[in-house]
Amino acid sequence: MAWLYLPYEIQAPEGYILSSVPVNIEVKSGKPAQVEFVNYKKPTLQILKLDADTQKPLVGAKFKVTEVSGKYVGEYTADVNGLVTVEAIDAGAYIITEIKAPDGYILDMTPKTVTLEPGKSLCVEFYNVSKLGLQLLKLDQLTGLPVKGAMFSVVELQGGAQKDHGTFTTSENGTFFIPDLTPGNYVITETKAAAGYILDPTPRNLYIEGGKLNTVEVYNTPAGDLRLVKFDSETRAPLENAVFKLFDEKRLEIGTYTTSVLGEINVTGLPGGIYFVQEVKAPAGYVLDNTVRQVELIGGKTTVLEVKNTALGSLRIIKKDSISGKPLYGAVFLLYDSKDNLLGEFVTDQNGVISFGRNLQAGKYKIKEIKAPEDYVLDETVRTVAIKEGETTEIVVPNEPIRGRIQIVKKAAGYNDITKDKEGALLKNAVFEITNNKNEVVDRITTDKRGVATSKDLPLGIYRIREITAPKHYLLDDKVFYATIKVHDDLVKFEVLNEPADISVTVQKYGNYEALLGQNLRYDFKDIANTSSVELDDFYFHDAIPTDALRLVSISTGTWNERLTYKILYATNLRKDYRVLKDKLNSQTVNEIDCRRETLKLKTGEYITDIKFEFGTVQPGFREVTQPYIICTVNGDLPNEYRFTNRCDAGGQREDVWAIPKDAWVTIIYTNPNKGPLPKTGY
Question: pTM here?
Answer without folding.
Answer: 0.43
